[in-house]
Amino acid sequence: MQLKLSIKKLFLGVAAILLIVSFSSCGKNVAFQNSSIVPAAKGNVSVKKDSNKNYSIKIKISNLAEVTRLQPSKNVYVVWMETEESLVKNIGQIKSDTGFMSSKLKASFETVTSFEPSKIFITAEDQQDVQYPGMQLILSTNRF
User: Fold this and answer.
1) Using an 8 Å Cβ cutoff, are 7 and 15 in contact?
2) Segment 15-63, tens digit of pLDDT
3) How far apart are CA 144 and CA 70, in angstroms?
4) Dihedral over Cα of 25, 120, 87, 79: its sign
5) pLDDT reading at 105 higher than 90
6) pLDDT > 70? residue 81
7) Given CA atoms 25, 26, 32, 33 in this order, what sign does their dihedral have?
8) How many Å apart are CA 107 and CA 130, to the nearest integer?
9) CA gap 110, 99 in Å, rounded
10) DSSP secondary structure string for all residues of the chain
């Protein structure tokens, strides 16, 4: 009888913890699709709405080749955001040099925006301040 009561309390405790965790993590965590240009690259995007009603975007990528090794060679990886209204916005760059990338080719990116993203993608570009994405799509999420 005592064992059944302990198991029931344990089960209720675990259920309560799972419920709390599910309500506290109101963000989205989306994996990038496989890349045909950099097939070894893997990564994910985390999007969370903050207390100011802005959106925090965090990206983590591994096995991202240096941008100068691509064919054709480029100078910078640019991160883009697409909104529900189909607005595409350059939200920053990921450099593939030793300052931002480790020897294991890992990269991360963080920014905050007032627009709600519905898709995140990365292109290889000649300049970081381009207004429209180029044709060399490196990584992309599905719409979320």
Assistant:
1) no
2) 556 555 444 446 889 999 999 999 999 999 999 999 999 999 999 999 9
3) 28
4) positive
5) no
6) yes
7) positive
8) 21
9) 16
10) -HHHHHHHHHHHHHHHHHHHHHHH--SEEEEPPPPSSSTT-EEEEEEEE-TTS-EEEEEEEES---GGGSSS--SEEEEEEEETT--EEEEEEE--STTT--TT--EEEEEEESSPEEEEEEEEES-TT-SS--S-EEEEPPP-
Q: Are 57 and 80 in contact (CB under 8 A)?
A: no
List own/partner pairs for 12-21 with CB under 8 A and 24 or more apart: none
**pLDDT tens, residue by residue, 119-142:** 999 999 999 999 999 999 999 999
**Residue 33 backbone phi and psi in degrees, to 5:** -75, 160
| Total-model pTM | 0.78
